[in-house]
Amino acid sequence: MIDLFLFGILPYLTIAVAVTGLIWRYVTNQFSYSSVSSQFLENRQLFWGSVPWHYGIILILLGHLLGVLFPGGISAFNGVPVRLYILEGTALALGLLVLVGLVFLLLRRGTSARLRVVTTPMDVVLLVLLLIQVIAGIGIAVFYRWGSAWYVQTAAPYFWSVVTLSPKVTYISSLPLLVQVHAVNAFVLVGLFPFTRLVHMLSIPFAYLWRPYQIVMWYRRQPRSF
Amino acid sequence: MQRKILIGLLLTLAVLVFIPLYWATESGRQAAAQERMTAEAVERGAGLYASNCATCHGPGGGGGVGPALKNTPLDEPTLHRTISRGIVGTAMPAFGDEEGGPLNKHQITDLATFIKNWESARQEVSAVPGEIASVTGPAASSAPHAPAPPVAAAPAGAGQAIFESKCSLCHSIGGGKRPTGPDLKGVTQRRERDWVLRIITSPDQLISQQDAIIRELVAEYGLAMPNLGLSRQEAEEVLAYIEGGSGAPVAPSPAPKPTTPQAGPAAGDAGVGRNIYTGKTSLRNGGAACISCHNIGGIGALGGGTLARDMTDAYSRLGDAGLASIMKTTPFPIMKDVYGNRPLTDEEIAHLAAFFREAGRPERPAAAKAPGTFIIVGIAGVIIIAGVFQLVWRRRLAGVRRPMVKGGSK
């Protein structure tokens, strides 16, 4: 029964909340579609937090997406043990990189006095949930290897069963508890998406790539003489 | 004093001479002892062969109901296992006493040695046929699982024939429970008759309905009953036979006709099985490669998955019958989802069983268990990536603002 709720109902519930929430936020507070950057307040620790986190998580999420979209391709790639080991090793390295970044981001929030002023409770909730998610993911990779291989045969069909509105909960409910935590926490993160700074995912400044050049001019008290 | 020294020198010399002499002849002595012991084993094995095997495999090993055993390509450990456990789906019963058969471990070793040394034992074999008639009778009646002489098997009811070809490999009637399944004596008193008919005709359906009794049985025996393709009519006949035959223990007798050599579990190729296991050869119906979740020895530096059980000792735990049954029915929760619509084919099962048999040998490498190497690989990866970040983007966030601040305060 609890399985049916967690894996058969919760996904739809959180997606509904996310969609409604995003529309509501767009209508009422459009300007807040941003990462609410705090780079201006502190940027030395931010480098070791933000850079590993973002490059790691983008590739990890891409991996999860590829597994769902091309399960056959991933299985074929993993057909030779060495290739499987390379994929898993890379994924674990990226997972640990993400963890390092997240720990730096958490420390930064905790230690910098300037940042504490601008930190909302939701920021802390989000960072803690992300920490749980990352630790669960690394735990799965290490203790229930080879995730990339069995993911495409369990999570991928489960994902499509949810998309096609006939969720097959046994795909997830028969997997180890850690995997279930990873899945449920992912749904929770989807549900919280509109109420956190995660919305900056939807405001990637693509236009930046072809914006016109900007000229930076200096005012100095004593212009140099030639 | 002088004399003592002389004696000491002589003794030393004697030892010095004795050791090389001993050392030089020892290996030859060992070889000779080995040969003598093999010859003895072959002799004992020949006697056992005549009384237990010759009926089906021919007195000269040329085959008959069973395949020819002379010059068999199977090696001794394989022979040993096949003899002690039998082959599921064929008339070959389990002879090992652990499986309820008449032979102990040492006798089976003697038999396997005899079969592998057929040439050297030619004289014994040619001397045997006269002996067969006198030995077969009492052996068959005293040992519950020895093949009965063909004469006794000829006129049998339909239920008995089905029981002997399909059921007796895993179940006995009054012979006690086997590692593969419960004793069926009085089964209709323990369970509802209708339920028994259902499990005979469509066990997979009961399994998929999460039947409570089935779950208990699967937990106890570690394997589920495969669908044998029996109709309701045939099931009734088998059940009638089981109910009627509750008297004496039933011995599986050889099939009345020579069975065509079928792709039983023993026919698989370990090399092909290994490729199926690692996923190099995709499964015909698109199921997951075994390596995804199961670890096993000898497949790669970091081993197989650890989501599910280690398969290194699977063959010794379950044997051909158990492995075939599990791979056929995939009764475990995750496997049921993954292989429910993409079942393994009989051919794949045979190859995999052969690979499990290979991998389970004690001389084969153990499975890579601890995740230590894997974690080290991951940490090394992080350090390399962090190094790249440091080299490429040292000034990434500081690049614009800091020089501006610095410049502005000059």
Question: Which tags fit this structure?
Answer:
heterodimer, A: about 230 residues, mainly alpha, Fumarate Reductase Cytochrome B subunit, 9 helices, B: about 400 residues, about 0% strand, flat
Describe the 3D structure.
The complex is a heterodimer of chains A (226) and B (410). Chain A has 226 residues and is an all-alpha fold. Chain A contains nine helices and no strands. Chain A has helices at 2-28, 44-69, 71-77, 81-111, 113-118, 121-143, 147-163, 170-173, 177-192. The termini of chain A are far apart. By secondary structure, chain B is mostly helical. In chain B, helix 8 (158-167) crosses helix 13 (232-244), helix 14 crosses helix 17 and helix 15 runs antiparallel to helix 17 (346-359). In chain B, 56% of the residues lie in helices and 0% in strands. The longest helix of chain B has 51 residues, at 2-52. Chain B has 19 helices and no strands. The radius of gyration of chain B is 31 Å and the shape is flat.
Distance between the termini of chain A: 82 Å
| Total number of beta strands of chain A | 0
Classify the helix fraction of chain A into a percent range.
55-70%
Mean pLDDT figure of chain A? 90
As a percent range, the share of strand residues of chain A is: under 5%
The CATH superfamily title of chain A: Transmembrane di-heme cytochromes, Chain C
